[in-house]
């Protein structure tokens, strides 16, 4: 039976009830199909924490690595759907995570290849509703499955780093820098637009994919 190591970086000493509910749904759904193992660690330094978690996962030689964020909710079939994409040759694939405030999907493309400070976000509207699996520049890091060879062969550590943009007064998150490194290494990022997540503070029914004009 194949094994999925689920990595959960924590900023708190607890996980919200909705995340625990989604984890229970995923473990129930996985019964008899694949093994789910959770590795959770807490630190205020999210970039180095993600590197530590990735290293810990690779020690066990898993079949798949699944990043989960504790402030999100995931459908029970999430691992199975992502496994199918990985088995079809994709190295990194996730679902659609909404912004916790606006509900708009956290999916973006680079305005020029490899520039983490030049991004354009994609939005789904009534006239442009994407379905299926599409290549993207990057997305949120929660609910993202990574083939182990990304960490074993294709990228050199550190994989996650905060990046400060001189003159712009802002910092790019460790997930953005990770996707930038993947882009520079020729690793494509994919998103399954039919796999919908939610933030704990944004219920799935309340998500608005496009702001009405």
Q: Outline, from the CA principal axes?
A: globular
Q: Which CATH architecture is right? A: Alpha-Beta Complex
- Counted up, domains total 1
User: What fraction, in percent, of the residue positions are helical?
Assistant: 25-40%
Spatial separation of the terminal alpha carbons: 50 Å
Explain what the structure shows:
The protein has about 210 residues and is of the alpha+beta class. The protein has a single domain, classed as Spore Coat Polysaccharide Biosynthesis Protein SpsA, Chain A, CATH 3.90.550.40. Helices cover about 25% and strands about 30% of the residues. It has a seven-stranded mixed beta sheet with strand order 2-1-3-10-5-13-8, with helices on both faces. Strands 7-6-9 form a three-stranded antiparallel beta sheet, covered by helices on one side. Strands 4-14 form a two-stranded antiparallel ribbon. The chain is globular.
Quick overview of this protein structure:
The protein has 213 residues and is an alpha+beta fold.
Essential attributes:
213 residues, alpha+beta, Spore Coat Polysaccharide Biosynthesis Protein SpsA, Chain A, seven-stranded mixed beta sheet, 5 helices, 14 strands
Topology:
Blueprint: E1 3-10, H1 17-30, E2 35-42, H2 46-59, E3 64-67, E4 72-73, H3 78-87, E5 92-96, E6 107-110, E7 119-121, E8 133-136, E9 138-139, E10 144-146, H4 149-154, E11 163-165, E12 170-172, H5 174-184, E13 189-196, E14 198-199
Parallel strand pairs: 1-2, 1-3, 5-13
Antiparallel strand pairs: 3-10, 4-14, 5-10, 6-7, 6-9, 8-13, 11-12
């Amino acid at each position: 039976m194949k094994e999925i190591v689920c990595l959960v970086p924590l900023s708190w000493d607890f996980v919200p009830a909705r995340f625990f509910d989604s984890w229970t749904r995923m473990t129930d759904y996985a019964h008899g199909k694949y093994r789910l193992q959770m590795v959770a660690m807490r630190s205020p330094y999210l970039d180095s924490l993600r590197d530590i978690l990735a290293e810990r996962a690779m020690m066990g030689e898993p079949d798949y690595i699944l990043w989960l964020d504790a402030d999100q909710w995931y459908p029970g079939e999430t691992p199975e759907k992502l496994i199918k994409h990985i088995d079809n040759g994709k190295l990194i694939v996730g679902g659609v995570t909404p912004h916790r405030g606006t509900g708009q999907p956290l999916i973006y493309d680079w305005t020029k290849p490899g520039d983490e400070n030049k991004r354009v976000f994609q939005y789904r509207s009534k006239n442009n509703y994407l379905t299926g699996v599409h290549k993207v520049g990057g997305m949120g890091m929660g609910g993202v499955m990574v083939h182990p060879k990304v960490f074993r062969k294709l990228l050199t550590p550190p994989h996650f780093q905060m990046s400060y943009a001189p003159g712009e007064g802002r910092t790019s998150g460790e997930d953005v820098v990770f996707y930038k490194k993947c882009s520079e290494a020729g690793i494509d990022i994919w998103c399954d637009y039919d796999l919908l997540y939610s933030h704990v503070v944004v219920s799935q029914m309340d998500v608005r994919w496009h702001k009405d004009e």
